[in-house]
Amino acid sequence: MLDNIQFSSVSEFFQMGKYTFHVWSVYGLFALFVFVNLFLPRVQRRQFIREQRQRALRDVQLAQNTAVNEERSRAQGEGE
Amino acid sequence: MWQWFYRMGSPKWFYEMSGKWLPWLYVLMTVLMSVGIVWALLFVPQDYQQGNTIRIMYVHVPVASISLACFPLMAVAGVITLVWKMKLADMVAKCAAPIGAWFTAVALATGAIWGQPIWGTWWAWDARLTSMLIQFFLLIGVIALRSAIESPDDSARASALLAIVGAINVPIIKYSVEWWNTLHQPASNFSMDNESAFGPEIWVPLVIMIFAVYCFFVISLILSTRNEILRRERRAQWVQDIVAGEKV
């Protein structure tokens, strides 16, 4: 099987005849394309989960603050 | 049958099922792509005219042919959205548009890099190239239209319509090389004969790469549809459980 490799040396492989730029830029672009499209959704997912957690935290704090304020005003009302 | 259809339309069901499919798709894609790329770069014989640029074909042709799947997919999803108002179909259509635009752009770019040494030009107003460029702009149009309309129902309907109309361009791209005899070569016919210019040693790795890139397309579509499901269903209890339970 190894006899069927079309290049006789590693440097010949990297050179790709006259077409070093053409062949490697296409494969490089393809690698970038695959990487970005598989990686970006993961970043977006993490971002979404982080945002939702912060929102949940804010909601809890807001509810607590409201409860505390209500408690305080009730206490003031009784004191008068 | 209808029960199945409706269950499939449930975002939660799709989210759970796709989570099970993804590992297998990753394995399949990795295996196919490794075999395909090694075969294309090392073992495919040089073309007697094109030399090593023949290796560009193993990226350009799969990406370009799968970019054509995008509009029919969006059109089918659009019909389902318009007729049955299935939420999942609209989410898939929304996520398919940017992915399709990526595929079309990469097909155009790799085509230009291939065309430069072979045709002596990066770009020509050839029928195939022009219709692909139109597909790119149509996809940008679908994305822009969706973000321009505020009401979710209206934007779903409008982009479904544009997707159905835009799908007309797909057969034009497909047959452009036969209808207009211009620069871009027509599809080669597979031949079982090893001595033929397009024998198995040329097309078997191409078929492998087409399946590999298909897997990649499906995976990226699933990943972004899952994100879209989480966004739209964020108030549902099952999404809040995921948000609370996941390490980030």
Topology:
The complex is a heterodimer of chains A (80) and B (248).
Chain A: H1 10-15, H2 20-79
Chain B: H1 2-8, H2 11-43, H3 57-84, H4 87-119, H5 127-148, H6 152-166, H7 169-179, H8 200-232, H9 237-245
Highlighted features:
heterodimer, A: 80 residues, mainly alpha, B: 248 residues
Description:
Chain A is an all-alpha fold and 80 residues long. Chain A has a domain at 41-80. Helices cover 82% and strands 0% of the residues of chain A. Chain A is built from two helices and no strands. Chain A has helices at 10-15, 20-79. The N and C termini of chain A lie far apart (96 Å). Chain B has 248 residues and is an all-alpha fold. Chain B has one domain. The mean pLDDT of chain B is 87. The interface between A and B is large, with 31 and 41 residues.
What is the structure about, briefly put?
The complex is a heterodimer of chains A (80) and B (248). With 80 residues, chain A is mainly α.
Q: What separation lies between the terminal Cα atoms of chain B?
A: 39 Å
Helix count of chain A equals: 2
Summed over residues and divided by their number, the pLDDT of chain B gives a mean of 87
Shape of chain A: rod-shaped
> Number of DSSP strands of chain B?
0
What structural category characterises the helix and strand content of chain A? mainly alpha
| Strand portion of chain B | under 5%
Query: Biggest interface, and residues per chain?
Result: A-B, 31 and 41 residues
Order of helices and strands of chain A: HH
The run of helices and strands of chain B is HHHHHHHHH
